[in-house]
Amino acid sequence: MRDQVSKKQGCNLTPGETVIGRWHGNRYRVIRELGRGATGTVYLVSSEKGQAALKAGSDAMSITSEVNVLQHFSKVQGEHLGPSLFDVDDFTAADGTYPFYVMEYIEGEEVIPFVQKRGVEWSGILAVQLLGDLDRLHQAGWIFGDLKPENLLVTGPPYRVRWFDVGGTTRSGRAIKEFTEFFDRGYWGLGGRKADPSYDLFAVAMILINSAFPARFERREKDNLSLLLKKTAERPALKQFAPVIRRALTGKYKEAMEMRKDLMDRIGTGSPRRERKAAQPQTGVPAAPVIPATRKAHRKVRKTLRKTPSGIVETLLVAAFLLLGYGLYLFVQIM
Amino acid sequence: MSKGTLRQVLLLTDGCSNAGEDPTAIAALAKEHGITVNVIGIMEESRNGSQGLKEVEEIALSGGGVSQIVYARQLSQTVQMVTRKAMTQTIQGVVNKELQQILGEDHELEDLAPAKRGQVVEVVDDLGETMDLEVVILVDTSASMTDKLPMVQEALVDLSVSLRSRTGGNRFALYSFPGRRRDVEKQLGWTPELDSLAGVFKKLTPGGLTPTGPALQEALRIFRNRMNTSEDRWDERSGLEETGM
Predict the structure, then answer these.
(1) How much is the pLDDT for A149?
(2) Which domains does chain B show, CATH number per domain?
(3) d(Cα B95, Cα B103) in Å, to the nearest integer?
(4) pLDDT digits (tens, 9 = 90+) for A30-55
(5) Overall CATH class of domain A18-103
(6) CATH topology of domain A109-290
């Protein structure tokens, strides 16, 4: 009912089904659905060259638009900026022809669950990594646009943030193509929707805020800047970044690298308890120190998991004994 | 292809029309004039009025535009998405027609090899960014819309923020229906931005009939007036008027 914008939305592939390209003749076997977006559905597929992600839509226009972006990306690519593009084609189903493209399958964890599981210190580090990538994208004349946790994945170890949905990427100087309200400066009344680097940097600040407020929140009628700053001050994990967040929200950063530098300085001076852990993988990804930290985290998780059920059992036992004792007491009283 | 002007009607309503001409017919006429009619149906969270929704779809269909049903809360994003989508659709219609002239009948984007499509889409993207846009916004202010109007206002300001970020020019006109004395009442004449909306809807007295047909008729008249008075300015316009998709 909500999809009346598109003419047909019937592209439904089932696991096991094989898609054959009409132009290039490549075969892809569907393994499972990975996700649904505004312009189409992404499937995990197996091909001759191994696993890949296949996005099929009904509108050749928007699919082609995304392919254009991915092609530009591959020209920008030094190392992993967005997924690489493998194939573009159409397939014919019973109800018509559907355009699709095949790209690299990026396996990873969503950002917010990752940060929740591993610790808030990761949010700053992931943001630093993200800002490095954004800088290269901006240098090439593109703005990411629809930057949000859902369009990012953490791959690894070594842990590295990567973007996998580049549908909203817009050429610098144009109007932003796609956006999500919480991460859009226009929504908060803090700027327009012309694609420039500061548009993306605003979204990075909002991703930081989102990682401390996973449920997000809505705008107020006015004075949203003070609302956002108030929220930032409420969480210790955010508070250390407050000056950086403020500058990003007010469009003071003209370049991703400026914000990245400020953020890195801040991560270094975090609360002393956190300092050791947070200081580890700032730039690049030094693999060695990351792995022990990871193992420890694993162990910690497992330990708490084991503790919880036994705690419940203990409580239940105590309660049972108390009840029994009380029953005996009553029994004795009646006798 | 020379740069031209895209003309759209954006109709925001919550249900059935019950007075005047059949809105579907007027929408079809507008399409013949090269004006697309887009409709956003605003739905009550608690209720499921499927009858009104059908009309929403039909008007957009015969007006060559885009329709979308939403809950009032999601209005902002929808309004701007529908407007953008309709622009692209219209431009795509023109480009497709040109393609047919080059490639012969029955050739559309889908008939090009995927590698060639990229260039066509870039042209469409370019036009969407740079063409001038004129939108007549029609807001249904009948009784049932009362509590949705603040959200409508917010969504329109938001639309203005989005469109202003384009390179091309924008002109908006805002009308509400039913008016106090007439079917349709003017709220704002042609203006480049909608920032001045604060308070516009406060003056309204929602109630009475829903003359959607006459409202569309009025929108059509506004466009035709504008086109006539600025005939020489838009003289070199490309064949956009005749596009229908």
Answers:
(1) 92
(2) 7-90+133-228 (3.40.50.410)
(3) 12
(4) 999 988 877 788 999 999 889 999 99
(5) alpha beta
(6) Transferase(Phosphotransferase); domain 1 (1.10.510)
| Nearest-Cα residue of chain A relative to residue B122 | A65
- Chain B residue numbers touching A192 (CB-CB < 8 A): 161, 164-165
Q: Which pair of tokens denotes residue A9?
A: 């939305």
CB contact A23 to B (< 8 Å) = yes
Phi, psi of B63, deg, nearest 5: -90, 10
Which residues lie closer than 8 Å to A280 by C-beta, 6 or more apart? A286, A289, A290, A293
- Which tokens is B4 given? 């031209």
Beta bridge partners of A20: A27
A1, A2, A3, A4, best to mutate vs chain B, most B CBs in 10 Å: A4
List of chain B residues whose C-beta atoms are within 8 Å of the C-beta of residue A60: 109-110, 117
Q: What's the mean pLDDT when you consider all of chain B?
A: 78
Q: Identity (one letter) of the amino acid at B154?
A: E
A143 to chain B, any CB pair closer than 8 A? The answer is no
Confidence band for B45, pLDDT divided at 50, 70 and 90:
low
Question: CB under 8 Å to B121, separation ≥6 — which residues?
Answer: A61, A64, A65, A68, B109
The DSSP letter of residue A188 is T
ipTM of the complex: 0.73
- Domain ranges in chain A are 18-103, 109-290
